[in-house]
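Suppose you are handed a protein chain with no further information: no name, no annotation, nothing but its sequence. What can you learn? This example shows the usual starting point.
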Amino acid sequence: MFRLALRNIFRQKSRTAMTLAAIAFGVAGLILSGGFIADVLTQLGEATIHSQLGHVQLFKKGYYEHGARSPEKYVIDDAGEIVDFVARMPEVDITLQRVSFSGLLNNGKADWAIIGEGVEPDKENHLGTFVRVIQGRALADGDADGILIGDGVAKALAVKPGDTVTLLLTTVDGAVNTSEFSVVGVFQSFSKDFDARAVRIPLDAARKLVDRAGANSVVLLLHDTANTSRVKDLLQPKLEGRGFDVRDWIELSDFYAKTVELYRNQFGVLQWIVLMMVLLSVFNTVNMSVFERVGEFGTLMALGNSRGYVFRLVMTENLMLGLAGAVLGLIIGVAVALLASRIGIPMPPPPNSNVGYTASIRLLPDTVLMSFLVGIAATVAAALIPARRVSRTPIVDALRYNI
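A reasonable first move is to predict its three-dimensional structure. Written in structure tokens, the prediction is:
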């Protein structure tokens, strides 16, 4: 049966080539689109992690929901003890303390509402590999009165590196506190909204301004993003009983979660479109091929072959076509993905972002396997109706096709 099926495939070389092309391009398209979307999501995730959030953050319970309005009410007094505890985990690269505050930034002419962070500069520079300093330089541990401001803040107040600004905020006791800072640099992160209000000053300076020791959050940067869920699961039972909230970067980034859902739905629709294209293309070709050979099938049945044999013969032919087309599509898809990744695909900044990036096409085993199986399944499914119809054709009617 396999030898006969193989000979039948090569009887109509042009038709077979068209069928193989439809299958191959469908499989290659799924591999390339799936790999591109996977790269977009991976780079979006890494940009989110390395521009602001880190992998895991620890807060006092209630800070995530209400801390933006009153961060001074959710201070971790024993932040140093927490840092020492989590830093011993082998998955953790560095730990950072942050003090959050809100207030007004004044350039001598106008005020601008800001959301500020007191940070450990050298550690933040290690974390913030996706933060671009577009003017001046990054904040350093030695900058006792230095301030790093977002691009949107710099444009709103028309300030540049070297200028002096005044930061005004209210302490936990309700007193007004002010301090002068020298602008050391202007940065762009992944989020344009963040850059429009964000400023960063050294941790000690922030503690003096808010008149409170401790920190509002402890940020964990891991060696590998894949360990995020494991670290979170290890910390939750140990810290939640002490009044802490443990959240990973996906929970902290609503934009990322919604983007993942959007792209996955789009890729699912694309899969169905490719599947229908392959089905229709193969069905049309198989239908023509089968009904041109009804007389041959009638002769086979007249010679004693069963209807099941005819059905299996047609299905075997198309299974072989599907395998060949899927293998060809696999080769094309992998080759194009490797070439595109080597060259790089320049991408504009995503929505609500200032920073573009260079995309590639990731070859994920599950995506490649799924695309391969879709090519075979679509081809076999397209042959079911023609094979069933011709195998049920009465022998007498089938033989008339030979006349």
